[in-house]
Amino acid sequence: MLLFQLPEDVLYHILSYLDCKTLSRLSQVSKAFCHIVSRDVVWKKIAKELLNTGITRYWTDIYPHILLKDRVKIAQNWYHGVCKRATPLKWKTNDGKIMVHGRRSESPMKLFGHNQEVNCIDSKNELIISGSRDQTTQIWTLTSNCRRAVIPLYDRVWSVAINPALSSFVTGTACCENFSPLRMWDVERLECVCSLGSGFRRGAGVLDMVFETPFHLFTCGYDTFIRLWDLRLSPHKNVMEWEEPHDSALYCMQTDGNHMIASGSSYYGVVRLWDKRRTECLQGEHILGEEDRPKNGTLRDSLFKRHSGQAMLTKTNRNTSLRQTTPKPPKSSPTNAHTMLQFFQLSSDPVSSPVYCLCFSCSHLYAALATALHSLDFRHNLNITISNGVQDMAVCTQDMAADCCLIIDGFLVLS
Fold it and tell me: How many angstroms separate the CA atoms of 223 and 273, rounded?
């Protein structure tokens, strides 16, 4: 019996045991084999073990419109730190407020309520939750510009995250009072359900948090640790943790839903990539130039989020606003960082901004700093083209449309 005479499911099952190199060679045998090997089902098992391929721990595919074979190639560059960079957006130093921008509406809806700068914001479906230096968390909806509720927290609120199940949310505070900086709240009853962790030292505020699943919460902050909490277990102890090797505060983080974590540090604009299966980080990247020194007004928090609705949100700090610029060419040649602490710096200037927020797709990583948005393109040296119509990232890059756009394909830019 010829190989092609086998049932498709049997053939794909056999091919799923081959490694990347063998599959690549097999695709060169004939056009028929090339067609078969290009199918996503052949690469799914390999992609599950690599970083940021879009295959989550539950085997769901985040980027089904991009060939999995191409994502496996890009994943090699993520692991080895091979990328090129650009600066697609800059912003300059409006009063603190929240604005909801409809993608089909020219005028934004303004949400007033906080009397000091808004440090953090999260949104899922029509629910919006914000946190401020005024020591309150406020709840809003996309259908009204009147706030639904105000929760006093008696400490500065640095971070918020809404559970994907929409039943609860978590707040992270500055840890300047005698209670845990991590607290979970019921969305309907607006009551504290539980406090997470114990023994936080004073000042060890939680600067960012991400729900990977309804039960898995990642947090980071001034204590230099990334922590994983399993909400099905005891709330007093995290299940895993990773320590920043240079003892820097961690301002932000994101995960790929599987093995990879990206974190942004407080010093010199360092972005690190982590494999959850290892205790030490994979890569460290300098992404700042001289223009990113914090000036009078700094961008405290800038978030990029998927959103299935018809709006985007922006949060501004005091004296901070966004402006768009035409993307500039990369300021440096691509880097290939193979060791844990190999850095790539755009400027020789020693003073630079923290990384305030991170976002990534299968091919790009974006980092928001004090005065600019930086992008890292991990398709470098690969003959892979992702069309503009299905581009995964919200913010324009140099290889996208000539005119700089702020919103693409249902993503939000929250700043």
Answer: 18
For residue 88, how many other CB atoms are within 10 A of its CB?
23
Same domain, 278 and 314: yes
Residue type, 212: E
- Token output for 362: 């299968």
Name the residue among 163, 270, 243 with its Cα closest to residue 210: 163
What integer pLDDT is reported at residue 304 of this predicted model? 39
pLDDT at 383: 66
What residues contact residue 176 under an 8 Å CB cut-off, 6+ apart? 155, 156, 202, 203, 205
d(Cα 366, Cα 88) in Å, to the nearest integer?
A: 10
Question: What pLDDT is attached to residue 380?
Answer: 76
pLDDT for position 284: 60
Q: What is the pLDDT of residues 378-402, one digit of tens each?
A: 987 776 666 433 333 333 332 222 2
Tokens 């609120």 locate to 157
pLDDT of the residue at 13: 86
| Residues ≥6 apart with Cβ < 8 Å to 415 | 91, 299, 301, 302, 303, 314, 315, 316, 320, 322, 368
Q: How far is CA 26 from its chain centroid?
A: 36
Instruction: Give residue 334's domain range.
Output: 84-414
CB 52 within 8 A of CB 274: no
pLDDT of residue 384: 67
> Are 177 and 50 found together in one domain?
no
Quote the CA–CA distance of 45 and 370 in Å, as a whole number: 40
Q: Which parts of the chain sit beneath pLDDT 50?
A: 93-94, 288-349, 387-415
What is residue 45's three-state secondary structure? helix
Q: Are strands 311-316 and 84-92 parallel, antiparallel or unpaired?
A: unpaired
Both 197 and 314 in a single domain?
yes
Identify the CA nearest to 220 among candidates 228, 236, 128.
228
Phi and psi at 31, nearest 5°, equal: -65, -35
d(CA 129, CA 220) in angstroms, rounded, equals 19
Whether residue 110 sits in one domain with residue 161:
yes
pLDDT value for 327:
34
Contact 399, 406 (CB under 8 A): no
Q: What distance in Å separates the CA atoms of residue 371 and residue 327, rounded to the nearest whole number?
A: 14
Q: At what angle do helices 40-48 and 68-80 cross, to 10 degrees?
A: 20
- Cα–Cα distance, 329 to 331 (Å, whole number): 6
| Final residue in a domain of this structure, among 80, 101, 128 | 80
- Alpha carbon distance 316, 120 (integer Å): 10
Q: Angle, to 10 degrees, between the axis of helix 8-15 and the axis of helix 40-48? A: 30
